[in-house]
Design a protein that fits this description.
320 residues; alpha/beta; Rossmann fold; Helicase, Ruva Protein, domain 3; Zinc Finger, Delta Prime, domain 3; 5-stranded parallel beta sheet
């Protein structure tokens, strides 16, 4: 266990271990205690506890025999109609072991299922209700066909908030003997953006170098520039120091190994911190969107970033 991936090592084993999502946990706990539940759909961003909660439900319902009564499939790997017709049906048609009258199939990333597979799944959910319940995990519930959504109780997960992430980081630091100062903690929370899995992976990578985790090591591993460095670039451009702004931006990109898309996303977050009128800020956010689109479509990222800095410099002139 010493060398385990932390996302697995610290995966919740009971409802009390799950951080955040209090309303969802309360309702799901009621289903488990009554040993009866409808089909469930867990929708939300990555790393917020969808798979963990599905595993906790299985453990609480089936106890030691949970592995025999729980099938986990990742639809992004196996998303054809044959998986639904063969794997899912074969598991669903047999009775559960123990006193719970149904098995559970957890279908992760089911928004990656083809339309044909979703139509087959719809019929399977209908036909095997007496012996099986489905838990569907997805990032975008809008990609799931309406007939499946109407068969499920939909729970929408939110990114973990700062107090919950702080509690989790502190718990892991105590368990692993790490020293994390406040700046490193803030950096870890800012970079992970509510994604618990990303946060644990970053923390494990940082701790492999040194038990004292610093702000610098977090930003370096995450390939994420410090907010102050992005602000400095924009401030130089606003002061009509275009060449200096360009040089600092290139240095920052090389220092952290950032791509053009990474930089644009960080710039977009920091624009609201600039001393500009609301209209000027809105215009720059719009320019960010345009640059991001062009880079993603294959344009040269350096040309697009320089063009954006030129727009910042023009905004600074107008503001003056």
């Amino acid at each position: 266990m010493e060398h385990a991936i932390w996302t697995e090592k610290y995966r919740p084993k009971a409802f009390s271990d799950v951080k955040g999502q209090k309303d969802i946990i309360g309702r799901v706990k009621f289903f488990v205690e009554s040993k009866n539940m409808p089909h469930l759909m867990f929708a939300g961003p990555a790393g917020v506890g969808k798979t963990s909660l599905a595993l906790v439900i299985a453990r609480e319902l089936f106890g030691d025999s949970w592995r025999q009564n729980f099938l986990e499939l990742n639809a992004s790997d196996e998303r054809g109609i044959d998986v639904i017709r063969i794997k899912v049906k074969d598991f669903a048609r047999t009775r559960a072991i123990g006193d719970v009258p149904f098995k559970i199939i957890y279908l992760d990333e089911c928004d990656a299922l083809t339309r044909e597979a979703q139509q087959a799944l719809r019929r399977t959910m209908e036909n095997y209700t007496s012996t099986c319940r489905f838990i569907l995990g997805c990032n975008y519930s809008s990609k799931i066909i309406d007939p499946i959504q109407s068969r499920c109780v939909v729970f929408r997960f939110k990114p973990l908030e700062k107090p919950e992430l702080v509690a989790l980081i502190s718990s892991i630091a105590k368990e692993e003997g790490l020293h994390i100062d406040d700046k490193a903690m803030d950096a870890l929370i800012a970079v992970s953006e509510g994604d618990c899995r990303k946060m644990e992976n970053l923390l494990q990578a940082a701790s492999a170098m040194d038990k004292k985790v610093t702000e610098e090591s977090i930003y370096s591993i995450a390939s994420f520039a410090r907010p102050k460095e992005i602000i400095d670039v924009l401030t130089l451009a606003l002061a009509n120091k275009f060449i200096d702004a360009r040089s600092k931006l290139l240095d920052t990109m090389l220092k952290y190994g950032l791509s053009g898309l990474d930089v644009i996303k960080q710039i977009q977050k920091e624009i609201l911190q600039l001393d500009l009128s609301g209209r000027a800020q809105l215009d720059l956010v719009s320019r960010c969107g345009e640059a991001e689109f062009r880079i993603s479509e294959g344009s040269d990222e350096y040309v697009q970033l320089e063009a954006f800095l030129a727009q910042v410099a023009l905004a600074g002139e107008k503001n003056t």
